[in-house]
Amino acid sequence: MTTMRATPMSFSRTIYRLHEAVVEWSAALPLSVVQLASRVAVAEVFWQSAQTKLASWSVTLQLFAFEYRLPLLDPGLAAIMATAAELSGAAMLGLGLLARLASLMLLGVVGTIQIFVYPDHWAEHLMWTSLLMLILSRGAGVFSVDHLVARRIRAGG
Protein backbone atom coordinates (compact mmCIF):
# COMPACT_ATOMS: atom_id res chain seq x y z
CA MET A 1 0.00 0.00 0.00
CA THR A 2 1.40 3.40 -0.92
CA THR A 3 0.99 6.45 1.21
CA MET A 4 0.10 9.67 -0.52
CA ARG A 5 1.74 12.72 0.93
CA ALA A 6 1.07 16.26 -0.03
CA THR A 7 4.35 17.64 -1.23
CA PRO A 8 5.02 21.30 -0.86
CA MET A 9 5.63 23.27 -4.03
CA SER A 10 9.18 22.70 -5.11
CA PHE A 11 11.75 25.37 -4.41
CA SER A 12 12.53 25.82 -8.10
CA ARG A 13 8.86 26.36 -8.90
CA THR A 14 8.64 29.02 -6.16
CA ILE A 15 11.71 30.78 -7.55
CA TYR A 16 10.24 30.63 -11.05
CA ARG A 17 6.95 32.19 -9.91
CA LEU A 18 8.81 34.88 -7.98
CA HIS A 19 10.89 35.63 -11.07
CA GLU A 20 7.77 35.88 -13.22
CA ALA A 21 6.17 38.28 -10.73
CA VAL A 22 9.28 40.51 -10.80
CA VAL A 23 9.35 40.44 -14.61
CA GLU A 24 5.68 41.39 -14.78
CA TRP A 25 6.12 44.19 -12.25
CA SER A 26 9.23 45.62 -13.94
CA ALA A 27 7.65 45.46 -17.39
CA ALA A 28 4.97 47.82 -16.10
CA LEU A 29 7.59 50.49 -15.34
CA PRO A 30 7.14 53.22 -17.94
CA LEU A 31 10.14 53.74 -20.22
CA SER A 32 9.74 57.50 -19.72
CA VAL A 33 10.69 57.10 -16.07
CA VAL A 34 13.88 55.27 -17.10
CA GLN A 35 14.60 57.94 -19.72
CA LEU A 36 14.13 60.74 -17.19
CA ALA A 37 16.38 59.03 -14.64
CA SER A 38 19.03 58.45 -17.30
CA ARG A 39 18.94 62.06 -18.44
CA VAL A 40 19.16 63.44 -14.92
CA ALA A 41 21.98 61.08 -13.90
CA VAL A 42 24.20 61.89 -16.88
CA ALA A 43 23.34 65.59 -16.81
CA GLU A 44 24.41 65.79 -13.17
CA VAL A 45 27.81 64.21 -13.89
CA PHE A 46 28.64 66.61 -16.70
CA TRP A 47 27.12 69.67 -14.99
CA GLN A 48 29.29 69.08 -11.91
CA SER A 49 32.35 68.52 -14.08
CA ALA A 50 31.78 71.84 -15.87
CA GLN A 51 31.19 73.64 -12.57
CA THR A 52 34.51 72.33 -11.28
CA LYS A 53 36.28 73.58 -14.39
CA LEU A 54 34.67 77.01 -14.07
CA ALA A 55 35.40 77.28 -10.34
CA SER A 56 39.13 77.39 -11.00
CA TRP A 57 39.85 78.19 -14.62
CA SER A 58 43.62 78.48 -14.08
CA VAL A 59 43.72 74.95 -12.66
CA THR A 60 41.55 73.76 -15.55
CA LEU A 61 44.02 75.21 -18.06
CA GLN A 62 46.91 73.53 -16.26
CA LEU A 63 45.09 70.18 -16.31
CA PHE A 64 44.46 70.44 -20.03
CA ALA A 65 48.07 71.49 -20.65
CA PHE A 66 49.90 69.00 -18.45
CA GLU A 67 47.61 66.08 -17.59
CA TYR A 68 44.97 65.67 -20.29
CA ARG A 69 47.22 66.56 -23.25
CA LEU A 70 44.74 66.14 -26.04
CA PRO A 71 46.45 65.74 -29.42
CA LEU A 72 46.05 68.39 -32.12
CA LEU A 73 44.27 70.87 -29.84
CA ASP A 74 45.62 73.85 -27.98
CA PRO A 75 44.98 73.23 -24.24
CA GLY A 76 43.10 76.53 -23.87
CA LEU A 77 40.82 75.73 -26.79
CA ALA A 78 40.30 72.17 -25.56
CA ALA A 79 39.33 73.47 -22.10
CA ILE A 80 36.80 75.89 -23.59
CA MET A 81 35.35 73.22 -25.88
CA ALA A 82 35.07 70.63 -23.10
CA THR A 83 33.47 73.05 -20.67
CA ALA A 84 31.01 74.33 -23.27
CA ALA A 85 30.07 70.78 -24.29
CA GLU A 86 29.58 69.73 -20.67
CA LEU A 87 27.49 72.78 -19.75
CA SER A 88 25.30 72.82 -22.82
CA GLY A 89 24.99 69.02 -23.01
CA ALA A 90 24.02 68.77 -19.34
CA ALA A 91 21.45 71.57 -19.63
CA MET A 92 19.97 70.10 -22.80
CA LEU A 93 19.74 66.63 -21.27
CA GLY A 94 18.27 67.92 -18.03
CA LEU A 95 15.51 69.71 -19.90
CA GLY A 96 15.12 67.03 -22.53
CA LEU A 97 15.79 69.66 -25.19
CA LEU A 98 17.35 68.25 -28.37
CA ALA A 99 18.30 65.33 -26.13
CA ARG A 100 19.53 63.11 -28.96
CA LEU A 101 21.89 65.82 -30.16
CA ALA A 102 23.08 66.39 -26.58
CA SER A 103 23.66 62.65 -26.23
CA LEU A 104 25.79 62.58 -29.36
CA MET A 105 27.81 65.54 -28.17
CA LEU A 106 28.43 64.01 -24.74
CA LEU A 107 29.25 60.63 -26.29
CA GLY A 108 32.04 62.50 -28.09
CA VAL A 109 33.23 63.91 -24.78
CA VAL A 110 33.15 60.46 -23.15
CA GLY A 111 34.99 58.93 -26.10
CA THR A 112 37.69 61.60 -25.90
CA ILE A 113 38.11 61.07 -22.17
CA GLN A 114 38.26 57.30 -22.62
CA ILE A 115 40.77 57.31 -25.47
CA PHE A 116 43.07 60.18 -24.54
CA VAL A 117 42.68 61.03 -20.86
CA TYR A 118 41.63 58.21 -18.54
CA PRO A 119 41.55 54.88 -20.42
CA ASP A 120 41.66 52.93 -17.15
CA HIS A 121 38.26 54.35 -16.12
CA TRP A 122 36.44 52.32 -18.77
CA ALA A 123 33.74 50.97 -16.42
CA GLU A 124 32.56 54.45 -15.46
CA HIS A 125 32.72 55.59 -19.08
CA LEU A 126 30.75 52.52 -20.15
CA MET A 127 28.03 53.40 -17.65
CA TRP A 128 27.76 56.96 -19.03
CA THR A 129 27.84 55.60 -22.57
CA SER A 130 25.03 53.16 -21.83
CA LEU A 131 22.78 55.89 -20.46
CA LEU A 132 23.61 58.23 -23.36
CA MET A 133 22.94 55.46 -25.90
CA LEU A 134 19.53 54.84 -24.29
CA ILE A 135 18.66 58.52 -24.76
CA LEU A 136 20.12 58.56 -28.27
CA SER A 137 18.17 55.48 -29.35
CA ARG A 138 14.86 56.05 -27.52
CA GLY A 139 14.73 59.82 -27.08
CA ALA A 140 14.14 61.99 -24.04
CA GLY A 141 10.78 60.52 -23.07
CA VAL A 142 7.46 62.04 -22.10
CA PHE A 143 8.92 64.27 -19.38
CA SER A 144 10.88 66.49 -21.77
CA VAL A 145 10.78 69.63 -23.85
CA ASP A 146 11.33 67.42 -26.92
CA HIS A 147 8.06 65.61 -26.20
CA LEU A 148 6.15 68.87 -25.66
CA VAL A 149 7.46 70.33 -28.91
CA ALA A 150 6.69 67.15 -30.88
CA ARG A 151 3.16 67.05 -29.43
CA ARG A 152 2.60 70.68 -30.38
CA ILE A 153 3.90 70.11 -33.93
CA ARG A 154 1.64 67.04 -34.35
CA ALA A 155 -1.32 69.12 -33.16
CA GLY A 156 -0.60 71.57 -35.96
CA GLY A 157 0.51 74.57 -34.06
Please describe what this structure looks like.
- The protein is an all-alpha fold and 157 residues long.
- It has helices at residues 11-27, 31-55, 57-68, 75-95, 99-117, 122-138, 145-154.
- Helix 3 crosses helix 4.
- The longest helix has 25 residues, at 31-55.
- It is flat, with a radius of gyration of 23 Å.
- The N and C termini lie far apart (82 Å).
Can you give keywords for this protein?
single chain, 157 residues, mainly alpha
Q: How far apart, in Å, are the first and last alpha carbons?
A: 82 Å
How many DSSP-defined strands? 0
Question: What is the helical fraction, as a range of percent?
Answer: over 70%
Classify the beta-strand content into a percent band.
Answer: under 5%
Alpha-beta content class: mainly alpha
Order of helices and strands: HHHHHHH
Q: For the CA atoms, what is the radius of gyration?
A: 23 Å
Largest sheet properties: none
**3D shape:** flat
Q: What is the helix tally?
A: 7
Low-confidence stretches: none
Mean pLDDT: 94
Q: Would you summarize the structure shown here?
A:
This protein is an all-alpha fold. Helix content is 77%, strand content 0%.
Outline the fold blueprint.
Blueprint (H helix, E strand, L loop, with lengths): L10 H17 L3 H25 L1 H12 L6 H21 L3 H19 L4 H17 L6 H10 L3
Helix pairs in contact: 2-4, 2-6, 3-4, 4-5, 5-6
